[in-house]
Amino acid sequence: MATKTITIDMAAYERLKAVQKDKESFSQVIKRVIVKPLDFQTFLKNIRKTSISEEATMAVETQIEKRHVPS
């Protein structure tokens, strides 16, 4: 496996260290804590293959409508 050396400031180091579990490497901490970015095109392709129930569709539409109602 290839590796890369990075420089981080002490505040970043302390934050990593604070969430590090026993025997966990910093690479493992980063992969656990930092969510992999969403590949939107793959998401759309997968969602098109999947049918959802009428109930689920209505729930999504209700949530979308709530976003457009002024507070």
How would you summarize what this structure contains?
It contains 4 helices and no strands.
Describe what this molecule looks like in 3D.
With 71 residues, the chain is an all-alpha fold. It contains 4 helices and no strands. It has helices at 10-19, 26-33, 40-49, 54-67. The model has no long low-confidence stretch (mean pLDDT 90).
Q: Strand portion, in percent?
A: under 5%
The average pLDDT is 90
Q: How many helical elements?
A: 4
Following the backbone from N to C, one meets helices and strands in this order, namely: HHHH
Shape: elongated
Low-pLDDT stretches? none
- Secondary-structure class: mainly alpha
Radius of gyration: 20 Å
Instruction: Give me the count of strands.
Output: 0
Oligomer: single chain
Largest sheet: none
Approximate helicity band: 55-70%
Distance between the termini: 52 Å
Name a few traits of the molecule.
59% helix; single chain; mainly alpha; 71 residues; 4 helices
Write the layout of secondary structure elements.
Elements: H1 10-19, H2 26-33, H3 40-49, H4 54-67
